[in-house]
Amino acid sequence: MQYVSKTTLNHDNINISLLSEKTRELIDLIGFPDTYLLVSTLGGQDVYIPKYPDRSKLIKILPRESVEILSQIYGGTYLALPTSRQIDIQERNKAIVKALLNGDSRAKVARQFGLSVRQVANVRKEFPTDEAPPY
Questions:
Q1: pLDDT in tens, the chain (135 residues)
Q2: What is each CA distance from 95 to 6, 29, 65, 75, 100, in whole angstroms?
Q3: Residue 53: partners with Cβ closer than 8 Å, 6 or more residues away
Q4: pTM here?
């Protein structure tokens, strides 16, 4: 089976410094797109990383080069993968602020994102300027 990227997330919009240490480590090793693909698919699980990439189930998820890097660094151990939650929340918050800046009411945005009006206001407070978040 050949690797096919499933992510269209624009990582230029993500503030890497807000992510967990393990997520940042994985980004340094295999890059943002492959890290996001990995944590969005298997995040929250302990995944065994074999010493030999051909024996890894990750070969069905990631490009061979990334699996080889993970095998070199973590081969023969279990890797506790973080979830994609921190990344997903940053993307959501950016979309919330953008909707508010486009004139949508807090109530409408709250319904759209399944949040309370108070939560939408709190997200907006994080970015008091009239610009969308810098990430």
A1: 333 344 456 677 788 999 999 999 999 999 999 999 999 999 999 999 999 999 999 999 999 999 999 999 999 999 999 999 999 999 999 999 999 999 999 999 999 999 999 999 999 998 766 655 655
A2: 20, 28, 33, 38, 9
A3: 59, 64, 67, 68, 71
A4: 0.80
